[in-house]
Amino acid sequence: MPKRRILLATLLAALHAGHASADLVVVANPKSGIERMTKEEVIFVFLGRWRQLPSGLPAKPVDSPVDSSEHDAFYRQLVNKDSADIKAYWSRLMFSGSTRPPISTQSREEQIKVLASTPGAIGYMERSATDSRIKIVFEFLGSAP
Q1: How many Å is the Cα radius of gyration of the chain?
Q2: Among 9, 48, 54, 46, which residue's Cα sits nearest to residue 24?
Q3: Which of 67, 66, 70 has the alpha carbon at shortest distance from 78?
Q4: Which of 30, 85, 89, 129 could form a disulfide with 81 if both were Cys (CB 3.0 to 4.6 A apart)?
Protein backbone atom coordinates (compact mmCIF):
# COMPACT_ATOMS: atom_id res chain seq x y z
CA MET A 1 0.00 0.00 0.00
CA PRO A 2 2.74 2.57 0.80
CA LYS A 3 4.27 1.98 -2.65
CA ARG A 4 0.97 2.93 -4.26
CA ARG A 5 0.81 6.14 -2.24
CA ILE A 6 4.36 7.05 -3.27
CA LEU A 7 3.53 6.31 -6.91
CA LEU A 8 0.34 8.38 -6.72
CA ALA A 9 2.17 11.28 -5.07
CA THR A 10 4.88 11.13 -7.75
CA LEU A 11 2.31 11.13 -10.55
CA LEU A 12 0.43 14.06 -9.02
CA ALA A 13 3.66 16.03 -8.64
CA ALA A 14 4.56 15.34 -12.27
CA LEU A 15 1.14 16.48 -13.44
CA HIS A 16 1.42 19.66 -11.38
CA ALA A 17 4.91 20.36 -12.76
CA GLY A 18 3.60 19.91 -16.31
CA HIS A 19 0.76 22.33 -15.60
CA ALA A 20 3.11 24.94 -14.16
CA SER A 21 5.23 24.89 -17.31
CA ALA A 22 2.09 25.72 -19.34
CA ASP A 23 1.47 29.00 -17.49
CA LEU A 24 0.35 31.71 -19.87
CA VAL A 25 1.82 35.19 -19.73
CA VAL A 26 1.08 38.34 -21.71
CA VAL A 27 4.10 39.59 -23.64
CA ALA A 28 4.93 42.75 -25.55
CA ASN A 29 7.52 44.11 -27.88
CA PRO A 30 10.29 45.69 -25.77
CA LYS A 31 9.77 48.97 -27.68
CA SER A 32 6.10 49.14 -26.64
CA GLY A 33 6.89 51.45 -23.73
CA ILE A 34 4.99 49.13 -21.38
CA GLU A 35 6.56 47.73 -18.26
CA ARG A 36 3.48 46.12 -16.68
CA MET A 37 -0.23 45.86 -17.47
CA THR A 38 -3.26 45.13 -15.33
CA LYS A 39 -5.74 42.42 -16.23
CA GLU A 40 -8.27 45.13 -17.09
CA GLU A 41 -5.81 46.74 -19.53
CA VAL A 42 -5.14 43.36 -21.18
CA ILE A 43 -8.90 42.85 -21.54
CA PHE A 44 -9.29 46.31 -23.10
CA VAL A 45 -6.56 45.58 -25.65
CA PHE A 46 -7.64 42.05 -26.58
CA LEU A 47 -11.35 42.87 -26.78
CA GLY A 48 -10.80 45.93 -28.94
CA ARG A 49 -11.80 48.56 -26.41
CA TRP A 50 -8.40 50.22 -26.62
CA ARG A 51 -6.86 50.99 -29.98
CA GLN A 52 -3.89 52.62 -28.30
CA LEU A 53 -1.54 51.33 -25.62
CA PRO A 54 -0.97 53.31 -22.43
CA SER A 55 2.41 54.30 -23.96
CA GLY A 56 0.63 56.01 -26.88
CA LEU A 57 1.57 53.45 -29.56
CA PRO A 58 -1.22 51.87 -31.61
CA ALA A 59 -2.32 48.61 -29.93
CA LYS A 60 -1.61 45.53 -32.05
CA PRO A 61 -2.93 42.48 -30.17
CA VAL A 62 -1.62 39.18 -31.56
CA ASP A 63 -3.54 35.92 -31.08
CA SER A 64 -2.21 32.38 -30.99
CA PRO A 65 -3.74 30.10 -33.63
CA VAL A 66 -7.50 29.85 -32.97
CA ASP A 67 -7.42 26.06 -32.75
CA SER A 68 -4.57 26.04 -30.20
CA SER A 69 -4.98 25.17 -26.55
CA GLU A 70 -3.20 28.45 -25.70
CA HIS A 71 -5.93 30.49 -27.44
CA ASP A 72 -8.73 28.80 -25.53
CA ALA A 73 -6.85 28.86 -22.20
CA PHE A 74 -5.98 32.56 -22.58
CA TYR A 75 -9.55 33.73 -23.16
CA ARG A 76 -10.85 31.37 -20.48
CA GLN A 77 -8.44 32.90 -17.93
CA LEU A 78 -8.93 36.44 -19.19
CA VAL A 79 -12.72 36.71 -19.54
CA ASN A 80 -14.03 33.19 -18.85
CA LYS A 81 -15.04 32.65 -22.50
CA ASP A 82 -14.10 29.86 -24.89
CA SER A 83 -12.88 30.26 -28.47
CA ALA A 84 -16.41 29.99 -29.91
CA ASP A 85 -17.64 32.82 -27.66
CA ILE A 86 -14.69 35.00 -28.68
CA LYS A 87 -15.28 34.28 -32.38
CA ALA A 88 -18.96 35.28 -31.99
CA TYR A 89 -17.93 38.45 -30.11
CA TRP A 90 -15.59 39.52 -32.92
CA SER A 91 -18.14 38.63 -35.60
CA ARG A 92 -20.61 41.06 -34.01
CA LEU A 93 -18.02 43.83 -33.68
CA MET A 94 -16.70 43.40 -37.21
CA PHE A 95 -20.24 43.46 -38.61
CA SER A 96 -20.85 46.79 -36.89
CA GLY A 97 -17.50 48.08 -38.18
CA SER A 98 -16.48 49.32 -34.74
CA THR A 99 -13.07 47.64 -34.44
CA ARG A 100 -10.81 44.84 -35.70
CA PRO A 101 -9.90 41.54 -34.03
CA PRO A 102 -6.36 40.69 -32.94
CA ILE A 103 -3.86 39.68 -35.59
CA SER A 104 -4.21 35.92 -35.99
CA THR A 105 -1.03 33.87 -36.37
CA GLN A 106 -0.63 30.33 -37.64
CA SER A 107 2.20 29.23 -35.34
CA ARG A 108 4.16 30.19 -32.26
CA GLU A 109 7.14 31.07 -34.45
CA GLU A 110 5.01 33.47 -36.50
CA GLN A 111 3.54 34.95 -33.32
CA ILE A 112 6.99 35.65 -31.86
CA LYS A 113 8.18 37.10 -35.17
CA VAL A 114 5.21 39.54 -35.28
CA LEU A 115 5.66 40.47 -31.62
CA ALA A 116 9.40 41.07 -32.03
CA SER A 117 9.03 43.19 -35.18
CA THR A 118 5.98 45.34 -34.29
CA PRO A 119 6.50 48.03 -31.59
CA GLY A 120 2.84 48.10 -30.41
CA ALA A 121 2.39 44.32 -30.48
CA ILE A 122 1.03 42.46 -27.48
CA GLY A 123 0.45 38.71 -27.33
CA TYR A 124 0.33 35.74 -25.00
CA MET A 125 2.09 32.42 -24.80
CA GLU A 126 3.43 29.83 -22.43
CA ARG A 127 6.05 31.30 -20.13
CA SER A 128 8.53 28.65 -21.31
CA ALA A 129 8.28 29.95 -24.91
CA THR A 130 9.35 33.53 -24.11
CA ASP A 131 12.79 34.77 -25.08
CA SER A 132 14.81 38.00 -25.15
CA ARG A 133 12.96 39.38 -28.21
CA ILE A 134 9.82 39.98 -26.13
CA LYS A 135 9.07 40.89 -22.52
CA ILE A 136 6.47 39.72 -20.02
CA VAL A 137 4.04 42.51 -19.08
CA PHE A 138 1.29 40.56 -17.30
CA GLU A 139 1.11 37.31 -15.34
CA PHE A 140 -2.12 35.61 -14.36
CA LEU A 141 -2.52 35.01 -10.63
CA GLY A 142 -1.23 31.62 -9.71
CA SER A 143 1.40 31.65 -12.46
CA ALA A 144 4.83 30.39 -11.54
CA PRO A 145 7.50 33.10 -11.10
Answers
A1: 17
A2: 46
A3: 70
A4: 85
d(CA 4, CA 74): 36
Domain boundaries, the chain: 23-139
Report, as ranges of residue numbers, the positions in the chain whose pLDDT lies below 70: 1-22, 142-145
Assigned fold of 23-139: D-Maltodextrin-Binding Protein; domain 2 (3.40.190)
pTM of the model: 0.79
Dihedral over Cα of 62, 30, 110, 132: its sign: negative
* pLDDT given for residue 66 in this prediction: 84
Q: Nearest to residue 63, comparing CAs of 36, 37, 97, 90? A: 90
